[in-house]
Structures are given as C-alpha cells and as structure tokens.
Design brief:
The protein is α/β, with parallel strands linked by helices. It has helices spanning 15-22, 26-38, 84-96, 116-128, 142-151, 164-167, 176-188, 205-216, 246-259, 276-284, 304-314, 325-350; strands spanning 45-55, 101-106, 132-136, 155-157, 192-194, 197-199, 224-229, 264-267, 289-291, 295-296, 299-300, 317-318. Strands 1, 2, 3, 4, 5, 6, 7, 8, 9 and 12 form a ten-stranded parallel sheet that branches. Strands 10-11 form a two-stranded antiparallel sheet. A hairpin with a 2-residue loop joins strand 10 and strand 11 (299-300). The two termini are 21 Å apart.
C-alpha cells in the first residue's frame, strides 16, 4: 500500500483559500480530509471525553445560544459550585465507562478568588485518578492561568464561537480580543488549548471559514477543536434558528481537519440529533474526538452504550484507556487486510 502523504501545519491561511476548500465537491473534500487525517492519526481511533457542569446557571454573559445565561429565562435552576468529592465521584464514573479525559465547566465570566482553590483541588483529584483534565471557566488572567497550570491542568477550553465579524451579533459581554488573550495566557502557561465554535447561529460560510482561520493561524494550533451544532433551547434568542444542513456540518469538520492536521477535531454538541450515518460521515471527514456520556453541561448527549455500539459497527475504538484495546484493534486490522486480500483475489479471478 503506498505511503499516505503527510500534510504540514500552516499558519497563514487566507479567506480565499479556505473558501475554496468549502466549495469543493463533497466527495473530493472528504477524500482530501481523510487523506490528511490518515497522515497523522489512526483513522479507527477516537478520543473520548466526558463533560460535567460543576457550576450551573446564572452566568452574567449574554451568549445568545446559551441556556445558562442569566439574561434569558430558560427554566434552568441556578446551582452552586459542586463539592470537590462529588466531582471526583463523577470523574471516577466517567473513567469506568471508558472516558480518558474529564472536562469540567462552570457558568462564570471568570473564576472568583473564593472559588478558585476548590477548582484547583478538583484538577489535582481528577489527575490522581489517571484521567486527563480539562476546564472551561470563562476568561482568565495570568495569575489564574498560572495557578491552573501549577495544579496540573492539561487542557483549557475557551471557544471563539464564530468569526470576529459575526461574534458581536452573538455576544456583547466579552470581546473577541479578550478571548484570544485568554488563549495566549493558556499557551504561555504551558497548557494545551481546546477551542472551536458553533454552527447554526445564522452565520455565513465566510464566518465559518473565518472562525477556522482564526484557530489555524494561531502560533500553535489548538490540540482540540470542538465543532458544535447549535442545540436550540427555548428561552434563548436562537431558539428558532434555522437548522444546519447536515452536509454543511460535515464540510466544516473536513475543512477543520485539513487546516489543523495534527489537532483532534471533536464532534461535540448537537450529536444527539445526528443519526448514525451522519456520525459515520463525521469520522470519515476527520473527526476523531467525542464527548461521551448522558449530558453536555445542561443538554443531553447520546448514551454511552449507543456510542460503543456505533463504534463496534464502524470498527472504531477509543484512542486510549480501554482494556485490551490494542488487541481488539489488531484484530480489526487483520480482518480489514483479509477482506482486502479476498477482494483482490475476487477481482483477479473475474478478469
């Protein structure tokens, strides 16, 4: 089998270049994305994370998509910061069902001096369980970022959400520049970045391209790039937004894979509304990370059993942390090789 060419990371993408990727015929785009993907990853492995809301509701931000915003009446009850031990119990449960990374989210504009010590204890405790750690706590200053890094936090999630041009149509309580500054603090502190955006808020194709350009042209690509489909929640300004065409969503994943070849592209919020065929196309387009479990912060998510059954049918395994995963994966490879050999024998006999 010929070697698959490896795409080199770039940080100088232009709008014209990225727009041309979006405009390719669908099959050509997926073929290019899958080729790039195989140059850097095992195409049959998917990284598995679990997300927990450690502080829910009454957020002072006015993000129009968010049911946790205190600006909208979504019927979501306000909850205080969870106790550290309860968070660790949830992390242990996540590990038991196959998650390798535990992500914790708090509905804050930024962490307070009162709450940060408890957050740091959560990071230390989850790491002690042998899981990777990720947090999303809003805007950070340098001192807070250093404290999180010192506690051993692996990833910090801070989405850009959309292009700079469209951003102000969705959020007014925090600037785009402030989001980029938080990402810079995280990178300077030595942590990994998880940053992506949302489709379905009324943005144009150029806005989708603009978001990916912002991420791909950072000095270092984010290690994780979550691509979310808007989950429309009653009471938010976007509750009646137009649905995203499934093929357009897959195109977004594929272009993200091409622009950021070494990043994990995460099939994130909105996955519950995707059928198995759409999810399979997402993996073909280069998505290789999912959130796993029953909920994403405050919205539902496909159950773990359903995910594992889909993985089984597609011959996909979690990227790490599953007992005997290597042996099972080797068996899948052997079956694929055998099938290819049988196909070649059949073809040769036919001609």
């Amino acid at each position: 089998m010929p070697a698959i060419p490896v795409a080199h990371a770039r940080h100088d993408w232009t709008l014209a270049e990225v727009r041309s990727l979006f405009e390719q015929p669908f099959n050509d785009l997926l073929f290019q994305a899958q080729t790039v993907h195989r140059g850097h990853f095992d195409a049959n492995r998917v990284q598995v994370s679990t997300l927990l809301s450690i502080k829910t509701g009454a957020c002072p931000e006015d993000c129009k998509y968010c049911p946790q915003s205190g600006h909208y009446n979504t019927g979501l009850a306000k909850e205080k910061l969870m106790e550290v031990q309860k968070v660790l119990d949830e992390a242990a449960n996540a590990k038991a069902i196959g998650a390798t990374r535990f992500c914790m989210g708090a509905a804050w504009k930024h962490p307070s001096a009162k709450d940060l010590p408890y957050v740091l204890e959560m990071v230390k405790g989850v790491k002690a369980l042998g899981l990777e750690t990720c947090m999303t706590l809003g805007q950070l200053d340098q001192e807070q970022t250093a404290a999180l890094a010192g506690a051993g936090l692996d990833y910090y999630n801070h989405n850009l959400d959309s292009s700079p041009e469209f951003y102000t149509s969705i959020i007014t309580t925090r600037t785009y520049a402030e989001r980029l500054q938080t990402l810079a603090y995280v990178r300077d502190a030595g942590m990994k970045i998880c940053s992506g955006g949302i489709l379905g808020m009324g943005e144009t194709v150029d806005d989708r391209a603009g978001l990916l350009i912002q991420l791909a042209n950072l000095p270092e690509h984010p290690e994780s790039v979550p691509i979310n489909m808007l989950v429309k929640v009653a009471g938010t300004p976007l509750e009646n937004a137009e649905d995203v065409d499934p093929f357009d969503f897959i195109r977004m994943l594929a272009v993200a894979r091409i622009l950021m070849p070494k990043s994990h592209v995460r099939l994130s919020a909105g996955r519950e509304s995707m059928n198995e065929q759409m999810q399979a196309l997402a993996f073909l387009a280069g998505a290789n990370s999912i959130f796993y479990g029953d909920r994403l912060l405050t919205t539902s998510n496909p159950q773990a059993e359903q995910d594992m059954e889909l993985f089984r049918r597609l011959g996909i395994l979690p990227e790490a942390g599953y007992e005997h995963a290597d042996e099972v994966h080797q068996a899948i490879i052997e079956q694929a090789v055998s099938a290819q050999q049988n196909s070649e024998l059949f073809y040769n006999a036919a001609v």
